[in-house]
Specification:
mainly alpha, 2 domains, 9 helices, three-stranded antiparallel β-sheet, hpI Integrase, Chain A
Amino acid sequence: MSTAASLQRLVERYLNERRQLGFAMNTSVYALRSFAHYIQAVGYRGPLTVEVMAEWARCDSHASTDPCTWARRLKQLRSFMRWLQQFEPRTEVPDDAIFGRLPERQAPHIYSEREIVDLLAAARRLGPAPGLRGAVYETLFGLLASTGLRISEALALHNSDVDLKRGVLTIERTKFAKSRQVPMHPSTVEALRRYRWVRDVAGVSAQTD
């Protein structure tokens, strides 16, 4: 890579191409732009090497001394470096050998029906009272358990996305920028209808998303 300016242009081109393919790229945007700015700041020229990438990874904004943090930062560069090799074949791609392999993701815990009932009961008791906090968390956890929504999808729901008459949720622009409809069990519809009533009684406008 001959100049930092050309690297910045290629970063933006890569991000734009990935967005067009449906990838959100939220975390990678910050990491790749940060790396391009670092290359400019240090005046680096020539093919991008693992050494300069590792130096950038160590210079996180929180001055972390944890190799796992460095490894996570470095991992954000891999896909871009593979893509960059078509323009600069001498570009190196970082691997797990630099800071060590990241800890394996733990196996998810599958909640039993009894655990879900207990969780909803505990959420219902959340204070302070009077207030909506308990109702909000009970409804949120119940919705996740009964529909399989991602937490980000549930938190992004608007009133207009919830059709209690048809018993359908509309999930807008989910993973890969697609939308979908999720049918709900009658008990879930009734729980959402009860939550809406509690919210309205508390003085929250039905038009508030």
